[in-house]
Design a protein that fits this description.
Elements lengths: L2 E2 L18 E4 L9 H17 L2 E4 L11 H14 L23 H13 L3 E4 L3 H13 L15 H9 L5 E4 L6 E5 L3 E5 L7 E4 L7 H11 L4 E5 L6 H13 L8 E5 L2 E2 L15 H7 L3 H9 L14 H7 L10 E2 L2 H14 L2 H7 L18 H12 L8 H9 L7 H7 L4 H14 L5 H14 L4 H13 L7 H8 L1 H16 L1
Parallel strand pairs: 2-3, 9-10, 11-12
Antiparallel strand pairs: 1-7, 4-5, 5-8, 6-7
């Protein structure tokens, strides 16, 4: 692990010395569902590129045929597009001067670079078996020495190599790490140093000739001229290896420069453990299905390790781009707080104009989300109730339970709400309220409120106690949208019919 080398130097997001426009990359593997931590990484790269006028490269690391899938690949594309995180170069129809942008289509490139590294002495064949490696590592641990690869095959003679081959052994290709401390300035963490004994030689090509991540990732960054590598803290330990490999790639003419690195803080879940794909709250699909707005989710994810200002948590994507600087990212772990994510999303729902809000809710007002017959949906009633609903939602999927009373033939049957509201003498109260409402002016919510208030006063009840039985009779729930506006939009005939049904149920 890295240790600080003296006092951290000032962090800076200044591009490479040549004054080139920054080039960043987002390079996920297409395995499983997109993860919110992965999205946070994509967001920071995208915001940095847009803030600096740089280039966002989207690259797919799909060299692991056993784990990668086309379904996950298309989910990644769809998720980034839903979030509005576009890319300047990458797969699908975007393309670019460094195509292809899927590693599975670049195998010839990796084989050529690996050969050049071997020919130049930066890499060598290693014939050690797994059992031999395990045995030597265990011995090193017992002796209190570093247990990484011990360089056994670093300087094999021709005779030793021939003997291994005669035994039928196959070899992997290892990169030869320099015997020196590797120091670099992390854009998030300042100066870091790695001693050579902690960074042993590492494999770059499997015995079957398949390139490893340790080779393909730096090679693609070099060939795509990436200037800034902004990635998760979990990859920090591999950075000295990549820096050494970049330097070798420069020597053999594959790379021009070593990029700047910034390692983003862990996103922590429950129990202060790193949020993993197995955690329910980690799945991006969950938030999309619940009806988070892209703007609300991006706002929250940007706060996982970065802040807009001390007194502002709610901001637009445009404001994020204008303000974002990688130098302001905090190195400390960030805790994922679902309640805060929901609160921020609720604020973004309230920021929508009513027309946009009305349209955004549409998917949840149709099957399979709706709990009413499709033919019952009334667009005019929905547009009338929408302004009242907008202030009540945390996520868009909440809309169904807020407005279903308008489109169902009968209210929802909620026993808990019924028991809570129908206390005392609800029959007397509902009977009086029904009579008052029957004579009221239904063009005015205030008139409907006065009718129910008068019924409550007649029975010694304040408005809150008086309206509870009416609300449950009409909507089925004890909480919901403003009652008297809801009654007006539902209409006189249907509202009175539901009060009658409630009275019949109470009498039975």
């Amino acid at each position: 692990m890295a240790s600080a080398s003296g006092s951290p130097s000032p962090k800076s997001s200044t591009p490479l010395g040549q004054g080139a426009s920054p080039r960043v990359r987002f390079c996920p593997s297409p395995t499983g569902n997109p993860h919110v931590g992965l999205v946070r990484t994509a967001l920071f790269n995208w915001a940095f590129a847009r803030h600096t006028g740089g280039t966002m490269v989207f690259r797919i690391e799909d060299t692991d045929a056993a784990r990668d899938s086309e379904e996950s690949y298309h989910q990644l594309l769809d998720s980034l597009r839903w979030l509005g995180l576009d890319w300047d170069e990458g797969p699908d129809e975007v393309g670019g001067p460094h195509a292809p942008y899927r590693q599975s289509q670049r195998m010839d490139i990796y084989a050529d670079v690996a050969k050049k590294l071997r020919d130049a002495g930066h890499a060598y064949d290693c014939y050690c078996t797994t059992a031999e490696l395990d045995e030597r590592r265990e011995a090193a641990r017992k002796a209190g020495r570093p247990s990484g690869y011990d360089g056994h095959c670093r300087a094999l003679t021709a005779e030793q190599t021939e003997a291994y081959r005669a035994e039928g052994r196959t070899s992997i290709v290892r990169f030869r790490m320099p015997d020196e401390t590797i120091t670099f300035t992390d854009l998030v963490r300042g100066d870091l140093s790695f001693a050579p004994e902690n960074v042993p030689d590492f494999g770059i090509v499997r015995a079957n000739g398949a390139p490893l991540y340790t080779l393909v990732n730096p090679v693609d960054d070099a060939l795509m001229e990436i200037t800034h590598v902004l990635r998760g803290e979990d990859l920090l330990s591999s950075t000295p290896r990549q820096i050494a490999l970049y330097q070798a790639l420069i020597e053999i003419g594959v790379a021009k420069d070593v990029p700047l690195f910034g390692h983003l803080p862990y996103v922590m879940g429950e129990g202060n453990k790193k949020l993993s794909k197995r955690d329910p709250e980690a799945s991006l699909n969950l938030y999309r299905e619940r009806g988070f707005l892209p703007e609300g989710l991006l706002n929250y994810l940007s706060l996982l390790g970065w802040s807009f200002s001390a007194d502002k948590d709610i901001f637009t994507v445009a404001e994020l781009v204008e303000k974002f600087d990688i130098a302001d990212v905090n190195a400390n772990p960030a805790r994922f707080d679902l309640k805060k994510a929901e609160a921020i999303n609720a604020d973004h729902i309230r920021l929508l104009d009513v027309k946009t809000f009305t349209e955004a809710c549409t998917p949840w007002l149709r099957a399979p989300h709706a709990n009413w017959p499709a033919e019952n949906f009334d667009q005019a009633a929905w547009e009338a109730i929408a302004p009242y609903a907008q202030t009540r939602l945390t996520v868009l999927s909440d809309i169904t339970a807020n407005v279903d009373f308008l489109f169902r033939d009968t209210p929802v049957d909620d026993e808990a709400s019924w028991a809570k509201a129908m206390k005392g003498d609800p029959i007397a109260l509902l009977t009086t309220a029904r009579a008052n409402l029957a004579d009221a002016d239904w063009s005015s919510p205030e008139a409907l409120k006065a009718a129910v208030l008068a019924a409550g006063e007649q029975h010694g009840l304040k408005l809150g106690k008086a309206q509870a039985p009416v609300r449950v009779a009409v909507t089925g729930r004890t909480v919901g949208l403003p009652l008297f506006e809801s009654l007006q939009i539902l209409g006189r005939e249907r509202s009175l019919a539901r009060i009658d049904a409630a009275l019949a149920k109470l009498s039975a």
